[in-house]
Design a protein that fits this description.
Helix content: 25-40%
Number of strands: 13
Oligomer: single chain
Largest sheet: 5 strands, mixed
Structural class: alpha+beta
Number of helices: 5
Shape: rod-shaped
Length: 313
Amino acid sequence: MLLSILLLGTVSLVLADEKPCTARDGDNFYDLNRLSSSKDYEFTSPSGDAFVVNVCKPVSSDTWAIKVDRPQDVAGFTRRPRGDFSLGYTNTTVHVRDGQPMLIMTGGSLCPLANETAASTVIRFICDTSVFGTGQPYLVAQLPPDESACAFFIEWRTHVACPTNEKGTAWGFLSILAAMYVVSALFMLYILVGTVYNRYVLELRGADQFPRYSLFTLTDAIEFFRNLTDRIRHRPSHSGFGDGGWGTRHRGRTSGGYHGLAEEQEAMMGGPPGFLDEQDEENAHHSPPTPPATSNGGTPPSSGADANGAIRL
């Protein structure tokens, strides 16, 4: 079970490092997934050309006569008279340059002036906290600067491009895993120690020897181990499992530990402290005096009879 949890943690760590559309730059973390939209972003270049793009996912708009091998993976295109021109395929790898995240799309339509070269596009995202929404892309340059352009440079000002705290990191998962492991270990220790204590100290049997499922406070735990130590330390050195030890049922309980049944019987038979001494003194006062012995060693006769047993009046 523990091995499976550790394996899951390792897999989660790898997946967290490979989370798409994110990047780390030192202590800064960038996440552009919030810019992925079900509706494409449309904008117009300074020359009036219409552009359609999306972030970290293919466009959802219909394309017309686009000449690429995988039209379903096109991340952006521009409208042209002879068909749509692809800006490049979808890419989820974010690069950070000078504190600014960037997406590079390659594999677009073939360049008009170089049939062996495919179009490519660079989108640079600029952190702008004054833009409360997702912002809007803007074409800053294209090469060549006419209708035969094959390289495009786009800027996108948005607060989403600002560095944030990473959510759901593997460190958070490992912290939860460690906490679960510690709690499980403490619970198993509680069950084990509680069972041993109930069986050999309290001499419970059956289901009674298992501890109840109640939460230990810190004070309860300290008191529990202190009492357990005191009971073991104050056990007689000659006692064993069959004679006055853990094999004998204990009745009373004091701060020094449990006392044996023999001590209770002695206390019950003897009565309160000093009782036997007072009883002996009382018997001494009320007992008749012992008659003196006769010359022949016999018991002297009573006052109403002589030595031969005759009654004297």
